[in-house]
Amino acid sequence: MSLFRTKNIENMLAAGRTGSLKKVLGPVDLVLMGIGAIIGTGIFVLTGTGALTAGPALTLSFIIAAMACGFAALCYAEFASTIPVSGSIYTYSYATLGEIVAWIIGWDLMLEYGLASSAVSVGWSGYFQSLAAGFGMHLPAAITAAPGSVPGVTTFINLPAVVIMLLITWVLSYGVRESARINNLMVAIKIGVVLLFIAVGVWHVKPANWTPFMPFGTSGMFNAAALVFFAFIGFDAVTSAAEEVRNPGRDLPIGIIGSLIVCTLLYVAVAAIMTGIVPFAQFAGVDHPVSLALQYAGQNWVAGFVDLGAILGMTTVILVMTYGQTRITYAMSRDGLLPPLLSRIHPTHKTPFAGTWIIGAIFAVIAGFVPLGVLAELINIGTLSAFALVSVAVLVLRRTRPDLPRAFRVPGAPVVPLISAGLCLFLMAHLQAATWIAFVVWLAIGMVIYFTYARRNALLHKHG
Questions:
Q1: Spatial contact of 409 and 81, defined as CB atoms under 8 Å apart
Q2: 8 A C-beta contact, residue 366 and residue 119
Q3: Is the Cβ–Cβ distance between 225 and 380 less than 8 Å?
Q4: Residue 286: CB partners within 8 Å, gap ≥ 6?
Q5: DSSP assignment of 84-122, as one string?
Q6: Is 88 left (phi over 0), alpha (psi -120 to 50) or beta?
Q7: Distance between CA 38 and CA 230 in Å, rounded?
Q8: Are 37 and 233 in contact (CB under 8 A)?
């Protein structure tokens, strides 16, 4: 009954090869899935908040956050190509660091995937209501936001956020191939919108707005990096699709690293142009900074396209993050750590149908009744802790199973994985104390569930 019992990797690989999930995804699908998860709230909303924290040095903040993600992405790529099984870092840690660590990671990933879906749904609702207001349509105030989230206004539920979560859940329950097609179309549109902003905005940049470049010093730059780290969350969701990829050894590293590179280049370009058009102090209280920059430049017609791109961008984030959550839950249920209903495969759609709807309904309720600020607090710390652990786990697997075939290997090991873990811990140190307290409470709840249900129902316990 060791807390650190590990799963047999050969058995995991065999289960992945003979599983019931359809193997229909290729490298283009995976790159677009990663972009779909990454480009959303981060580029359309957080850029304004980040500019207030770092000033024009926001571009460096994005690069620092991208470096932390990039090193972690290399570690993810090695694991994904070595153990192409559903479950992402949860699965990898179960094979290397033991069951208790795997449970903690799986519990952490619920913060990343599930709460990110809910948080982005709330952001989606705001942009949707803004777009609808442009056509003269206004929802009753009572159904536009979570209770207590709008000072001086009586609100009961964020109905648009609930509706979009349930619509995405329906799409995911129908089939992964169909979900990927919808995602690919929306990703293509939103990349076009971002490129349109760059092409138009670059002509309105005033270099004087970049001075002083670092008004809040290095501390402001690092604090902004810890904040905009949220903008890169999602590339790891690609690994959740491992059992549905035709050639995982080759395609998963392409999807992980390719999507991160594309998004980093776009983020840095948008941040530089945005702060070059608008003096950074004017982003205070603005939840549509990219649109504001275009309006400031007198390009209102492009700003309308950006609002549409923001809605599509957030839709793909919800789609991919909810997908990742359902596959993490599927893997944990299949291992006995969660109830078996969550891993039951639909005979026609070949998806964890009941599990998808249960997860979607839970986070739809959270999106409807919990304010955005509360949701956002926990997401980054859960993700950073998971990234730090995967960086350690890749070194453990190198030592314990050097014989495993690896289609991709992290270059510069052990230095690169150690740098990855160090950067993640460094960014975690720049998060607020309230976030740490909430994180500890979340882990405590997870430990109660583990010791009362998961540990005694785990297949490793039942089958020795």
A1: no
A2: no
A3: no
A4: 48, 292
A5: --TTHHHHHHHHHT-HHHHHHHHHHHIIIIIHHHHHHHH
A6: left
A7: 9
A8: yes
Please, how many CA atoms are within 13 Å of residue 147, restricted to the half-sphere of its CB? Answer: 4
The contacts of residue 73 (CB under 8 Å, 6+ apart) are 235, 236, 256, 257, 260
Residue 457 has a CB neighbour count (10 Å cut-off) of: 15
Contact 329, 117 (CB under 8 A): no
Whole-angstrom distance between the N-terminal and C-terminal Cα of the chain? 9
Instruction: Report which of 334, 458, 438 is spatially closest to residue 111, judged by C-alpha positions.
Output: 438
User: Distance between CA 420 and CA 416 in Å, rounded?
Assistant: 6
Tokens representing 432 are: 């607020």
* 211 vs 228: CA distance, rounded Å: 21
DSSP-derived 3-state class of residue 245: strand
Amino acid, single-letter form, for residue 254: I
pLDDT at residue number 20: 63
Peptide bond into 289 cis (omega under 30): no
Q: What's the burial of 38, exposed, middle or buried (CB within 10 Å: 0-12/13-18/19+)?
A: buried
CA angle 76, 77, 78 (to 5 degrees): 95
The pair of structure tokens assigned to 80 is 């994904």
| Residue 193 near residue 305, CB atoms below 8 Å | yes
Contacts of 39 (CB under 8 A, 6+ apart): 187, 190, 191, 194, 263, 266, 313, 316, 317
**Per-residue pLDDT tens over the stretch 248-307:** 888 888 988 899 999 999 999 999 999 999 999 888 766 678 888 888 888 877 877 787
Please, what's the b/e burial string for 159-195 (b: 16 or more CB within 10 A of its CB; e: otherwise)? bbbbbbbbebbebbbbbbeebbebbbebbeebbebbe
Written as six digits, the tokens of 89 are: 């870092």
Please count the CA atoms within 13 angstroms of the CA of 22 that sit on its side-chain side. 17
Residue 314 exposure: Cα atoms within 13 Å on the Cβ side: 27
Asked if 410 and 257 touch (Cβ cutoff 8 Å), the reply is no
d(CA 228, CA 224): 6
| C-alpha to C-alpha distance for 22 and 243, rounded to whole angstroms | 8
**pLDDT tens sequence across 399-446:** 988 888 888 899 998 999 999 999 889 888 888 787 888 888 889 999
Could you say which DSSP state residue 152 is in? T
Distances (CA, A) of 410 to 189, 234, 259, 365, 449: 33, 20, 17, 40, 35
Residue bearing tokens 């998860």: 37
Which candidate, 105, 150, 143, 99, places its Cα nearest to that of 125? 143
